[in-house]
What does this fold into?
Amino acid sequence: MIKELKAYEVDPKVKIVILKGNGKAFCAGGDVLASYTSMVAGHWSYGTNFYKKQIMLDYLVATYGKPVVAIIDGIVMGGGAGLSLQGTFRIVTENTVFAMPETAIGHFTDVGSSYFLSRIPGCFGEYLGLTGAKIRGAEMVECGLATHFMLAKDARLLETALDEVTSTDTKTISEIISKFMHKPNVKQHGAFSRLEIINKCFSRTTVEEILSSLESEAETKSEKWILDAINWMKSACPASLKISLRSIREGRKQGLEQCLIQECTIVCHIVRRTVSNDFYEGIRAILLDKDKNPKWEPSKLELVTDEMVGRYFSRVDEDDMEPLQLPTRSNLVDTMRPKL
It folds into this structure.
């Protein structure tokens, strides 16, 4: 994809690039099982080399010299979100389901999510990152993760219309896309409608305080989404939750490049097992043996100290391990700025 995108960027015949899935999903995420297998059989750097390529691809899309139209029809999670949510136009449908479920496997919300989750209203990004909650296309538009909503049946018609584009002018492209826009059916009791309570709980300083706040809410409101959030956080990797919270919060003060570089550093520590074996244990329990009973170390939130979390954000102490170097690109734009 990097090779093709670089070629299209300098090809005068190419005016826009469309990203879409090949099948019923856009992309359910990176193949972490393949990375796990290669690292266990060889060296932890196999995982970081794959990840660096993935980040380079995300960065290329975010800084692309021509408009990128991501048609996100179906599941979009993890690596799929990192790729599509950097696009100029992020179009979703009634089939779209978004989630960042990394904390369930001992990983953290990565692939640029410290940038895009930290820029949506209130603490909705913390909620999505810490609970693995799924939201539909309509809510993605509502919170700003997506720019347009259309019906899946119109996707082919939109592509045909975009095939006729003769310039890279985003205003012209926006006008074409707007012809296919459909008013999304936002559920009255959808996740984003609960923003007041989400802000109340997820604005707390620590993961422990967030969980305690949710449990307090559950005592007076036995709503499914609150119970789901509590259950997820209690079963997720404790260290992953704390890493994700810090990553998203620091991301609010960083540009995209800083976010990607910092996330890459965290990934290096995770696959190198600097602090714990959680990522390997999570993949074993959830994806390999599928016993769904991972043994996290540390096993409880209160045992994960600030010092432990801080080590994930520190420079990797390895002679041949250089920090991620992103190429200088002249077209870096704020991909989270509304395009409507």
Observations:
- The radius of gyration is 20 Å.
- The chain has a mean pLDDT of 93.
- The beta strands are 17-20, 68-72, 75-77, 89-92, 97-99, 135-136, 148-149.
- The longest strand covers residues 68-72.
